[in-house]
Amino acid sequence: MASQFVRIVLGCCLAGSIKAFAPLRTLRDTTAHFGIVSTATTIQTQQHDPRLSSLLTTSQNPLVVTSSSSRSQLAMTITPSAAVRIAALATSAVAVAATAVVKLVLDKPRGTYRNETEYENTVMEEYDEWADDGILEYYWGEHIHLGYYGPGEGGLFPKKNFIKAKYEFIDEMMKFGGIEKNSATSKPLKVLDVGCGFGGTSRYLAKNLGPKAHVTGITLSPNQAQKGAELAQEQGVGDRTKFLVMDALKMTFEDNTFDIVWACESGEHMPDKKKYIEQMMRVLKPGGTFVMACWCERDETPGQPFTKRDRRDLQYLYEEWSHPYFISISKFQELIEQTGVMSTPVTTANWVKETIASWRHSILVGIIDPRGWIFKPRQYFKCVRDAYCLERMHRAFQRGLMEYGMWTATKKKQSTDAAATTEEAVALPAEPSS
């Protein structure tokens, strides 16, 4: 009975469609494709093109639907297989239309980054929102940065634990910067973590650079600074860490304060990349180590200019997660060297292969374990947006539009001769005036 009812309903719908679209030439092909055939019983329509009579054939088990007409008669039936095909086509059409609408909505970035003068509030609001909903912390743990994946560890289903990959990234970044882990004879070290997030890296460095190391983390988010300090106390490094709400473009530290300046994925948010670099070089001690990681766009050259698609994709990535703009690895290198205080050449690298698995791995952990977001319905749409942006990031890095930049350099030491000359000048008495 149920199948008979479905056949009747579909037959009625199709009869109405034939009445409305009878003049169309394509009707012959459409009816033939979906197995619509004629029968001895009639479906009557008020008006139709005489050409439809050529569609009439015979069929077994006919389905009969009739409507009165004074001019002509059309005999048709819908086989069960045709009903299935029509239903499948309708479902596919709805799915395609829905996908197109969703993509249209998601492709329009939130545009939360307002302008250069308001960047502090913009980035602070973005990170406070992430800190408040708890979703990012649930999946990413203490570290708001990408993970490190060695050969064979990435792919669609990574073979490495998502959180462990982030700790290994810190280890590899330390090796890249020539920073040794703790030893019994470790000397006192003052470390600055620029853009510390929840302070995961700050605490990890404090634990691994020896008992005499002290790490200061700065962030624009008061919520992150508070959370970082609380976790430091819980993990027993409260006396060797400090978390401050401070703008990296307006640091209040004295010149030559820190032995190590560490910056991991904070430069993306800086509206003035030049000032960002200059501030970090200023607070680094002579002989101190600078190491930085940052998402970058590729170099645009006359031989490889940005296409319309490239510019559209970059604009989306700028605006969706509060990025004013990206620059290339080589341009950051130029900014570091232009300060004139760093030993050259600056060492650089592109870690796309080592980090690209993080993007889709981030989505995968949310699918495998939905507990981080499933009970927060107000965040559903934001989760979908973030997952979509993660995929867009993956594709941009995969096709070479984006690069994962790494830099390390040492600040020049003062010349012994220059220092001696300065001391002598201070010690010499002033010549008597004539």
Question: Which structural traits does this protein have?
Answer:
about 15% strand; alpha/beta; 15 helices; globular; about 425 residues; two-stranded antiparallel sheet
What report would you give on this structure?
Strands 5-4-3-6-7-9-8 form a seven-stranded mixed β-sheet, with helices on both faces. Strands 1-2 form a two-stranded antiparallel sheet. It is of the alpha/beta class and 434 residues long. Helices cover 44% and strands 13% of the residues. It starts with a helix and ends in a 7-residue tail after the last helix. The longest helix has 27 residues. Helix 13 packs antiparallel against helix 14. The N terminus and C terminus are likely disordered. It is built from 15 helices and nine strands.
Brief synopsis:
With 434 residues, the chain is an alpha/beta fold. It contains 15 helices and nine strands. The strands form two sheets. It has a seven-stranded mixed sheet with strand order 5-4-3-6-7-9-8, with helices on both faces. A two-stranded antiparallel ribbon has the order 1-2.
